[in-house]
Amino acid sequence: MTGAEYVQEALAGLDRAAGSGVDPALPLYATTFVVVDLETTGGAPDGGGITEIGAVKVRGGEELGVLATLVNPGVPIPPFITVLTGITQAMLLPAPPIEQVLPSFLEFITDAVLVAHNAPYDVGFLKAACAKHGYPWPNPRVLDTAALARRVLTRDEVPNRKLGTLAAYFRTATQPTHRALDDAKATVDVLHGLIGRLGGHRVDTVGEAIEFARAVTPTQRRKRHLAEGLPKVPGVYIFRAADDRPLYVGTSGDIATRVRSYFTAAEKRARISEMLAAAERVEAVECAHSLEAEVRELRLIAAHAPPYNRRSKYPERQVWLKLTDEAYPRLSIVRDLAPTDSAYLGPFRSRQAAELAAAGFHDAVPLRQCTHRLSRRTTMPACALAELGRCPAPCEHRITPEEYEHRAATPFRTATRDDPGVVVDALLARIEVLSAAQRYEEAAVARGRLVAVLRAAVRMQRLAALTGIAELAAARPAARGGWELALVRHGRLAGAGVSPPGVHPRPTIAAIRATAETVLPGHGPVPAATAEETERILSWLERPETRLVEATDGWASPVGGAGRFRDLLAKAENGGSHKLSTERS
């Protein structure tokens, strides 16, 4: 690993959730800090190069311990380093190497927040040394006094954020001398001076101080009070404008923690920054568990279409591909299904997806593509497709309604309800012919149509298997004991709750059932909820730890249904067209 990579890891480490045992909610006055400074040979952090370590442990303004030692880097000291620090080669010859110093240093920083001036530099050398000599880096929380000074002090107060400048500004007891212990002691006083300034910014805990030191925008800093007072429970949060319009809806297993993250340096999305500027309050909707939170989020987004949400808006824009009810049926793309519709596929998220699936059926079976309403008695002139052999010309009665039903309509009906094998075989055969003729671009188009047909059929049959059940109760172990419970009716979440640890869940299920939403059966594979809501419920139900408690009907899919082509679908989505003919499941 190169030196540059070590530096990058150090920088990344400052932004990750640290692995130390320090609670981010710990008040600053009760936090144990280890302020560290290194002297080095001036090279890149390659696992060596450290010539001196100075560290001071403090808490509540009181010094708890000091660690200071010279380190033999095993390489000559550059003359300019000797001039800068006063450390000579003769001073380092009897000093221990870094691999002997690391155990004591790592023990010294246990359960403490690491503080350094320009922390990525010092942390980079320490992490590289640990990696080279086989010591696991404890990934402590890190506070950078240089970054904190950039947020706290203005240019009118200090011209720059160098340690010497800050030491003079705060009148530290020890002045920086480019020796590790002196610089660490000066940094301790700088740290205490900066903490004294944080109160005016409503920063009271170590977690808030670390976040405050990062490069948050003025809007994030100004609006961070919106995250105060929110519950640390699963649920939905809604950012609202001054006129109470929902701007953004989200969900989390911990509302308070998630909302706070919008006001940290980790949040860099431009649209979220724009949303925060318009937000005036955050509303929390507590939920029993994560599934209820996800469903409520979907319903709120669908109901209000918040301008800063991108996903799950406008479920009414879904479309269906259906077979028309006439003498010679054809495929039609519609917004809604009528109770009389008996052969359909969907829902599709866009008209383009439905058109791609329709093209797949037209490649596989001789369904007519014209939009005329044909009569059993009178004829019409045939179009060019009939002359090209791509249509059986029912307009000229070249095919009887019975034969057309058998050859064209029945394969579509069967593919949507049960087995799409006829359509799949026809498309695979077409792909094989095109690939054999080295017409790979056309084969890729046919493969895309196969994917559209299979994806829609698999999805619809999976949805229909659940929505056909009048009521289903399920339970999943809760993280803190007990059971998360869900009552599902026709694919819609009708009730949710949590059974406490040590209590049988049956009484809770009975209470949920008594207060659950009434859901009436309807037409189609998603009669009572959006497809996305039912799919969220399916994902929750299909987890290995979920237990089915009760169901009014059996939950099953057709033995020869579209689900048996899942492997083929995955290969078609990811593989080459010329391989599909031999990959059929």
Automatic annotation (TrEMBL):
The UniProt entry, under InterPro entries, shows: DnaQ (IPR006054), GIY-YIG_endonuc (IPR000305), GIY-YIG_endonuc_sf (IPR035901), GIY-YIG_UvrC_Cho (IPR047296), Ribonucl_H (IPR013520), RNaseH-like_sf (IPR012337), RNaseH_sf (IPR036397), UvrABC_protein_C (IPR050066)
All copies of domain GIY-YIG, residue ranges: 232-310
Q: Which GO terms describe its molecular function?
A: exonuclease activity
Q: Which residues form a coiled coil?
A: none
Listed CDD domains: DEDDh, GIY-YIG_UvrC_Cho
Q: Which UniProt keywords apply?
A: Exonuclease, Hydrolase, Nuclease
- Which Gene3D superfamilies does the protein's record reference? GIY-YIG endonuclease, Ribonuclease H-like superfamily/Ribonuclease H
Query: PROSITE patterns, per this entry?
Result: GIY_YIG (PS50164)
Domain of life the protein comes from: Bacteria
Classification via PANTHER family = UVRABC SYSTEM PROTEIN C, UVRC/OXIDOREDUCTASE
Q: What is the protein's given name?
A: DEDD exonuclease domain-containing protein
